[in-house]
């Protein structure tokens, strides 16, 4: 009987020692654990392995390399990347205009915090813009300038040679003050059954190619210039696209700026 009591007493002592040790280990582990998990908002875009950063950069597959690098820099600095749209009344206005349609899709794809668009529209020729309003662009040109260089307004008013020189002047002025800004050129909207205006646009395209300036040829997705259907894509006074034309133009630019696999 005495032997049994001794055995039970020893077993109780061992149990107490084991239980106490486990409690102590749990206490130590608990005190070393972090109070809370890192906040999701604290995303470090400077980390090249960041999945969200990689996703955003994959959308820019069509962009000029300099623009892609500027976007990556903006992400690392956690600031907005600004696209400035400059041109004539071809830009239109309101929620159905192609700049507004483009802005909506850009912010949906990239996030409102990462992409900002600014539209600067003028009812004038390129020469008038250079002499009167270029200062507004120079104040804050943004990271990328999508430039519709008043080609339609210049038609019959400014010689093609002078029109192209005005483009060069605008780009040189911006670059002298904001060397990291990138230009992309695009023509205004097409017109139905015209002779000289398409030649001016062809000159613009050739100028872009000769000077290695990215050129967005959205005319490729409009009806043929001699197709009567073109009238449906234009405002009655031809100063800008119709709602249908704005949509076609916007879709072309959306496909360019938001690359989808």
Notable traits:
single chain; 261 residues; alpha/beta; four-stranded parallel beta sheet; 4 strands; 50% helix; 8% strand; globular; disordered N terminus
Write a compact overview of the structure shown:
Helix content is 50%, strand content 8%. It has helices at 2-32, 51-58, 65-76, 98-110, 126-139, 151-154, 160-177, 196-210, 243-257; strands at 81-87, 115-121, 144-147, 182-185.
Q: How would you describe this structure to a colleague?
A:
There is one protein chain. The protein is α/β, with parallel strands linked by helices and 261 residues long. Helix content is 50%, strand content 8%. The chain contains nine helices and four strands, in the order H-H-H-E-H-E-H-E-H-H-E-H-H. A four-stranded parallel beta sheet has the order 2-1-3-4. Helix 4 links the parallel strand 1 and strand 2.
The end-to-end distance, rounded to whole angstroms, is: 83 Å
Mean pLDDT: 86
Strand content: 5-15%
Flag low-confidence runs. 1-42
Radius of gyration: 31 Å
Major sheet: order of its strands? 2-1-3-4
Number of strands: 4
